[in-house]
Amino acid sequence: MAESRRRPWKGSLIFSGVVLLATISVMVFVPNEQLALEISVLLAGLAVGTLFLRFGVPRPWMGSIVLILFVVVWFALGAAGYAWFGGFLAGTYVGVAWGRASKNRTVKPAAPWTVDEQGFGTMAEARRAAGEALHALDGKKRGRLFVAHGAARFEVAGGVGLGLVCHRSANAADEGSWAVMVRPGQVSDESVEIQMGKTKGLMPLRLVHDPAPVEAALADFFESPRSSSYGPEWMTGPEAEATRLTAS
């Protein structure tokens, strides 16, 4: 996944710097006798504001308490209250920037295997899920299975007991790479209707299989998903692409 070039946290950090610089400027250019107190209050406000916006509070009602305490401390400090206000305000934007930067860094890697839109981190998990999904095919509510590994893809349409049509490709984006599994020794021109939910299609009988050979083909796909040499039981060409049943 390509990382976005946008850095939404930078704007918050810049605004925080402006507020902090303005507060420090008041400390430097306005004569006062409590500079040490103001510096301490500024740093305390900066820390509290940062933590409050970065991590929030365990309960929503606690946010109101924090804001009330902020106002109470502000007025209790008297002339030094501006340092508390400036530090807290600058800290809130630091907290926002911190949260956004952390979110940008947390990029969940794509799962190497996908079975029916669900990602799996290991081949064993994906293989188990695919096997269960294959046996659950009924041609109606569950009429299609697909397994993907990178650009490679394995598809089954139909239902157990009704007939299954099986396709695979080492590069699903390339239409010419698709292959359809053919029943050995079957040369009859007879066709049967295969149903996949609302989609139905007449398929040559030589392309319709029982679960056993489809299971074997699925196992082979897991062992070598990127292989483009499928074996004699697979047929490539226009018919392979034309016989893929897609969901409606």
Question: Can you describe this structure?
Answer:
With about 250 residues, the protein is of the alpha+beta class. It is built from 7 helices and 9 strands; from the N terminus they run ααααββαββββββαβα. The chain has helices at about 10-30, 35-55, 60-75, 80-105, 125-135, 210-225, 240; strands at about 115, 120, 145-150, 150-160, 165-170, 180, 190-195, 200-205, 235. The strands form 2 sheets. It has a 7-stranded antiparallel sheet. A two-stranded antiparallel sheet has the order 7-8. α1 packs antiparallel against α4, α2 (about 35-55) runs parallel beside α4 (about 80-105) and α5 (about 125-135) packs antiparallel against α6. The protein is rod-shaped and about 100 Å long. It starts with 8 loop residues before the first helix and ends in a 6-residue tail after the last helix.
Structural class based on helices, strands and sheet pairing: alpha+beta
Quaternary arrangement of the chains shown?
single chain
| SS strand fraction | 15-25%
Main sheet characteristics: 7 strands, antiparallel
**Percent of residues in helical segments?**
40-55%
Q: Largest beta sheet: what is the strand line-up?
A: 2-1-3-4-5-6-9
Task: State Rg.
Answer: 32 Å
The rough form would be described as: rod-shaped
Element-by-element helix/strand order: HHHHEEHEEEEEEHEH
> Care to count the β-strands?
9
Unreliable stretches: 1-6
Terminal-residue CA separation: 29 Å
Counted by DSSP, the helix tally is 7
- Mean pLDDT score, rounded? 82
What features would you highlight for this structure?
248 residues, disordered N terminus
